[in-house]
Write the structure tokens for this entry.
Amino acid sequence: MSDSLDKIRVVLVNTSHPGNIGAAARAMKIMGLRRLYLVAPKSFPHEKAVWRSVGAVDLLENAVVVESLDQAVADCGLVVGASARERRIPWPTQDVRTAAGSIVEAATAGNEVAVLFGREDRGLKNEELQKCQFHLTIPTSEDYSALNLAAAVQVVAYEIRMADQQPRADQPWDVKLATADDLERLLIHYEQVMIALDFYDPATPKQLLTRIRRLFLRSKLDKMEINILRGILGATEKALGRPRDNT
Amino acid sequence: MSDSLDKIRVVLVNTSHPGNIGAAARAMKIMGLRRLYLVAPKSFPHEKAVWRSVGAVDLLENAVVVESLDQAVADCGLVVGASARERRIPWPTQDVRTAAGSIVEAATAGNEVAVLFGREDRGLKNEELQKCQFHLTIPTSEDYSALNLAAAVQVVAYEIRMADQQPRADQPWDVKLATADDLERLLIHYEQVMIALDFYDPATPKQLLTRIRRLFLRSKLDKMEINILRGILGATEKALGRPRDNT
């Protein structure tokens, strides 16, 4: 297995049917992906998951089960969400082929990468999609687009494998990407400073924080840039006479 | 739906489980493919096929059920077989992405195209694979390559859809491709002439006919070229004093 593929986790959020978890594990393993995260699965472990996984039961045995999406992606430099629907606030979106290139590029540069798949019936919620740097779409027929969970995982895993087999650009980024956790702390810091500045009223939030979130997710911040931004926020707080928050 | 996708049929050969036929139909329809051919399915129609097809039951209702592979591909200008195994005689092979480009190119030029998928357990037999101009492979992990039938159809249909959305080269071939039936008649004609010439002994065939088959499949003969070759064979027979065979 390629080292890059080892950096990529598939995160299934709130899956209802354990059989779909097994089928997704099979789809992953066929393409060389092995790291499965389950956020609050309805039924797991479950014999139906084992049965549908066929020869991929090792992925189920090693699956990481967590309660919240944040726990599943905290250490990730790139978080991508599979999405079928149009969203109220447009978010950066890549088709699955382009997305697979971005995913493998980030993984090859040594970053942890998460690809999120939502519920069978309703996909990912807006607040979950807003944890993502970009959304990934799979082209489907206009007439019929009922791609099931395991089929979506299969197409994404296939494209990741194809991208992993491409020759690489030889100019990797010089600093590690910021993790999802780094970014959440930055956003909390922004919120605190904006409130302190009377720039932002949590009682009438509009979509200010969401737009800031989208901006920084899109910009693929690295760790050094995060430090710079937080340094500015800290300096602002200091100037306002408040202690710097240490989240 | 694109007109090109209308020219492409998926041919499932000797499928054992009707549920897999339904899941394959669903995978096709999601990507805009609608024409399903079933060669000697074990159980069809069947409620499990309907159940697994979800919203793609129209593909099942319109499926063409035939007894032999030749019936399923007789009018096709391009026949491609999904294959996982190494073959005794190497055959032209394209990865699924390249193959999808070839498939859409042929369909766009107005040719009927068939993509064959074999049995769940043993795939396509050698004699079936030797009906194909080329074989299509889906890259999988070295460790685990148990791609199931519907997942294979999903990846192939996805790549066909992606290829169909690409801008087209604007120099289509000037003559229609020969059909599978044209080619079978040419090969029978060759066999007869080679026997007449004492060049070929059906009692000890070796792989002579297979190699000729592979040659002409690979060359993507058009109808005019077939006529020329058969004209030569007919002229040979005439010179040998035998009536020209009219298969």
Remarks:
- The first strand of chain A starts at residue 8 and ends at 13.
- The first helix of chain A runs from residue 3 to 6.
